[in-house]
Amino acid sequence: FALDYGLVAAPVRPETAVRLRCPCGIVTAFVPWDGSRSGNPVRFHSVPAFVAATDLAIDVPGHGKVVVDIGYGGTFYAFLSAEQLGLDVCSSKTRDLVKAASAVTEAVKKQFKLHHPESEDLAFLYGTILTDGKDAFSEEPTTNICVFADEQVDRSPTGSGVTARIALQYHKGLIQLNQTRTFRSSTTGSLFTGKAVQATKFGDYNAVVVEVSGEAFYTGTATFTVEEEDPLKHGFFFK
């Protein structure tokens, strides 16, 4: 049921902790368990999330100067309201949002150097998240679209994206610790909640641990086999 560094752990009631080794570090997920199957909502605690830049002026070809924030939630994202690009995150065509977000990503990569406290391999911009601009605390959901990697679009509000956006809102004093916000995906309407649960330090950055919660469902299973004669059964390292 649960994988912890590759070891199977027995589930426990009412909730099972699952520690996942991700490229950004250890992420702990918490899965409800009733004795026979898992349930919802599932939540996770992030690696330390922090703000790399706020109110950064970027010249975006075809759009002129825009102002972005850059946050880290396991990877780096640029954040700005779709309105700055002449779009509406809730009603504009997805292809137009993707094209504009991708232009922002490329512009930020050229005009701003990122730094990660522990690994320069993680010091790259993964994508741009366009929002509805509703960053101040509200009980109402705020909508965003995450365009990442090779112009891919997330079906959800994005776990690492919600983490980074909570870190930004906390940094700006728009939310407090343990104040929950709801985030909606503009593509599917799916919802995540997020809250900063702990203030911490990460290198020179003031950071927070963020709890993200949402629904999760089984989509498949896999069986992995290790044969004794396999010379690489324990893995390998590159020098």
TrEMBL record:
One of its GO terms (molecular function) is trans-L-3-hydroxyproline dehydratase activity. It comes from the Eukaryota. Its EC number is 4.2.1.77. Keywords: Lyase. InterPro entries: Pro_racemase_fam (IPR008794). The keyword Membrane does not apply. It catalyses: trans-3-hydroxy-L-proline = 1-pyrroline-2-carboxylate + H2O. Homodimer. Belongs to the proline racemase family. This is trans-L-3-hydroxyproline dehydratase. It comes from Sula dactylatra. The gene is L3hypdh.
